[in-house]
Amino acid sequence: MVQLTISPEEFNSLYHPKTWPNKIMEAKEWQAQILEQQKTAMIEVLEKDVAKFERYLDGLSEEAEACKLLDDVSSPAVVVVCGSNRFFVVDLRF
Fold first, then answer.
1. What is the spatial distance between Cα 73 and Cα 80, in angstroms, rounded to a whole number?
2. Full residue range of the structural domain in which residue 70 is found
3. Between residues 11 and 68, the one the model is more confident about
4. Exposed e or buried b for every residue in 40-77, given b needs 16+ CB within 10 A?
5. What pLDDT, on the 0 to 100 scale, is given for residue 13?
6. Alpha helices by DSSP H, the chain
7. Which residue has better confidence, 30 or 76?
8. pLDDT greater than 90 at residue 15
9. pLDDT tier for residue 34 given thresholds of 50, 70 and 90
10. How many domains does the chain have?
11. Domain annotation covers residue 43
């Protein structure tokens, strides 16, 4: 058996680099967990945005359907303007 007599500082300077692969793996795992949390949070935000947008589109669809019912082709001087769930009748006759 061979015994080497080295100081604690020398031992640490030789052993310390061998600890880096484990430190790198731990940091990688930690960042993966953080990214997963951020991904989950972003998905929740996007799902809320999609739901809000779909409600907006449903409102526009209802408004478009209501505008279809208000066309009066017998009186072209009267115009029905639809917008923002409001209907305006404009009489263009003077």
1. 11
2. 9-91
3. 11
4. eeeeeeeeeeeeeeeeeeeeeeeeeeeeeeeeeeeeee
5. 86
6. 8-15, 20-69
7. 30
8. no
9. very high
10. 1
11. yes
In a domain, 2, yes or no: no
Strand partners, 56: none
- The span from the CA of 8 to the CA of 6, in Å, is 7
> What is the Cα–Cα distance from 7 to 23, expressed in whole angstroms?
24
What is the distance in angstroms between the CA of the first residue and the CA of the last residue of the chain? 115
* pLDDT number for residue 11: 85
Structure tokens at 27: 């940091």
Residue 6 CB contacts under 8 Å (≥ 6 apart), including other chains: 14
- Tell me the pLDDT tens digit for each residue of 39-87: 999 999 999 999 999 999 998 888 777 767 665 555 555 555 566 666 6
From CA 79, how far away is CA 90, in angstroms rounded? Answer: 5
Residue position matching structure tokens 């960042």: 31
Whether 1 maps to a domain, the answer reads no
Has residue 4 been placed in a domain? no
